[in-house]
Amino acid sequence: SALAGVSVAAMFAPPVDDPTKNTLRPTVTGTSAMGIKYKGGVMLATDTIACYGSWIRYKDVQRIHQISNDSVLAMNGEMSDFQKVLEMLEQKRVHEYCVDDGSTQTSAELHSYLTRVMYNKRCKFDPLWNMLLVGGFRNGEGYLGYSDLYGSHFTDDYMATGLGMYMALPLMRNQWTPDMTEAQARKLLEDALKLCYYRDTRASNKVQFARVDATGVHVEEPVVIQGEWNFQRFVDGSAKAGDGGW
């Protein structure tokens, strides 16, 4: 018999050549990330939650990280895949340090590298389920680039990922100007984050900002933005009892 001498465990074991499957469906995810150029720098912002499905499982997650002396990375999507991206970038940083030739990669080069990684993984049907924003500032010029799980990429003066593409971008288009100050850029990002907080069930009002300018990278501690819930329909509700319910 062909099964003679084969153990029960071996019969039900997966094939040796069974491919490793990573993110076929995102599980723990972060929502919108946003970035904007202003006169003298670039600013990025996200909130600090990660959701397990629709459950807000983690409330103090950092989705903005410094990746070089003049570059910062923000993300939307699967948290474990983002951790993998950060590991790869750290390997590149260590290699760059070991070469010790005085040269460091620009934000544009890091963005290009991430785009190639994302496209390579997509072609293997094993995508890194993220939308990434790369912000940087060098030699008096700001850089803001986007890459996603398909390998799509572009640069712009302002951008958003996730539901922020639909909710925050119209606000940015109306209010962004090339000569806006840092304070104006922060106010615009705060308004965009607040807009997402009102309308995205997986967004939070606890947010984090990072900016890159001539002095370097500055990743701030999370802050809470205040919402306004005194709209009369919220107070009255639709029920005749006037209890504020829907």
Give me some keywords for this one.
about 250 residues; alpha+beta; eight-stranded antiparallel β-sheet; about 30% strand
What oligomeric state do the depicted chains represent? single chain
Q: What structural class results from the helix and strand content? A: alpha+beta
Q: Could you give the distance between the termini?
A: 69 Å
- Uncertain segments: none
Sheet-strand content, in percent, reads: 25-35%
How many DSSP H or I helices?
A: 7
Give, in order, the helices and strands.
HEEEEEEEHHEEEEHHHEEEH
Mean pLDDT: 88
Question: What is the gyration radius calculated from CA atoms?
Answer: 22 Å
**Shape descriptor:** globular
Helical residues, percent: 25-40%
Largest sheet properties: 8 strands, antiparallel
Strand element count:
14
Describe the protein:
It is a single chain. The protein contains seven helices and 14 strands. The chain has helices spanning 8-12, 79-99, 107-123, 164-167, 169-175, 182-199, 232-236; strands at residues 28-30, 33-38, 41-47, 50-52, 55-58, 64-68, 71-78, 130-138, 141-148, 153-155, 158-160, 206-213, 216-219, 223-224. Strands 1, 4, 5, 6, 7, 8, 9 and 10 form an eight-stranded antiparallel sheet that branches. Strands 2, 3, 11, 12, 13 and 14 form a six-stranded antiparallel sheet that branches. A hairpin with a 2-residue loop joins strand 2 and strand 3 (41-47). The N and C termini lie far apart (69 Å). The model has no long low-confidence stretch (mean pLDDT 88).
Topology:
Elements: H1 8-12, E1 28-30, E2 33-38, E3 41-47, E4 50-52, E5 55-58, E6 64-68, E7 71-78, H2 79-99, H3 107-123, E8 130-138, E9 141-148, E10 153-155, E11 158-160, H4 164-167, H5 169-175, H6 182-199, E12 206-213, E13 216-219, E14 223-224, H7 232-236
Antiparallel strand pairs: 1-4, 1-7, 2-3, 2-11, 3-12, 4-5, 6-7, 7-8, 8-9, 9-10, 12-13, 12-14
